[in-house]
Write the structure tokens for this entry.
Amino acid sequence: MFVDKYEKIPNRRTFVLFITLLCCLIFLSACTSKTIWVLFDDEPTLHQIPIHGDTYAEVLSNADLSLGEMDHMWVNGISTTADQAVDLKAGDTLQVQRAYPLTIHDNGIDRTLLTSARTIGQALWENHITISSDDYISLPLDTMINQSLSLDIRRSSTITIQVDGKEVIGSASAQTVGEALAQSGVALENLDYSIPAENEALPADGVVQVIRVSEEITLVEEIIPYETEYVADPELDLDQYAVVEAGEAGLSISRIRVRTENGVEVSRKTEEAWIAKSPVSRKTAYGTKITIQTTSTPDGTIEYWRAVTVTAHSYHDTGYRTASGKWPTYGMMAVSSSWWPSMKGASFYVPGYGIAVVEDKCGACEGNMLIDLFIPTEDYVGWHKSVTLYFLTPVPSNIKYVLP
């Protein structure tokens, strides 16, 4: 009897231990059944936490999980707020969308938003920031916000493009003229340029000129006149001429670059020129055979070795000495500077005037068959007549055979 009594004691202890373990398992099971899953978008870890607290913010805080001021939450995909009363059951999923700073540079105005929006477009919409189709944004509107971002916005403005004889009105958000032209569908081709230039900022008045430029190469022919080469002929009478060899004109060709802007020629530049055909000089023989002759005049018989037709002018006192250093008097004649070396001091007879000696130069006579005859101021008579100029003997050693 004594042994049987004590043998039953271990069985009772085992029963109590069993009951205790069973209660613990039931308690742990109850505790485990009251947990939810928490997912933060910036963490790869899935958290399992108990539902302990009256609001969602308290549930997270009691589980040592931080919640930012602008973070957004969804319970089983339904949006909620941090201060909303908890309505959870075991196994629910709480998803937290972190808020990130979005710095916006909007036409020189900077501001930073703390947003939990999924995309840039949603963040702008939530903050009442409108974007037109012509505005420039540095990031696409569907860019995901999963980190700090910086966004540039350039607002479009009206531009007037003067091109091809008309005005194109449009809007552009470009920083440079070139970008504005591209946005407006106006292309600069080849040598075209704009005012202001492509790399310059848009002008304050929004007016841009497009200059259409074209260049073409043209060949221009030009006749090269031939020169006359004089050769002396002692068998030919003085002041008589004979063509020994006919001349022939040459030909030059120039390659010219012609530039036009908006249809108007602005420059013509010779890039190369060459002689396609050289001119051939004409050879003319001039007579050097001198025959001394005489003729009767109202002033008596004169002896001369040459007679040519010239135009005679008259001039009066000028207050200056003649080229020979003398004061002018009646009977002095002025000739061109090309005649002067061979005729200075020579005597001539001019019908209606008389004997005249070359003592002066005549600037107006240059290159012409023309002489000036001096008449004192008190007796001055204006002359402008064609006369025969007689070269009086003796024959000088220095003769200008070809006149003028």
Notes: The chain is about 15% helix and 45% strand. Residues 290-392 form a domain with the Barwin-like endoglucanases fold (CATH 2.40.40.10). The longest strand covers residues 300-315. Confidence is low (pLDDT under 50) at residues 1-10, 24-32.
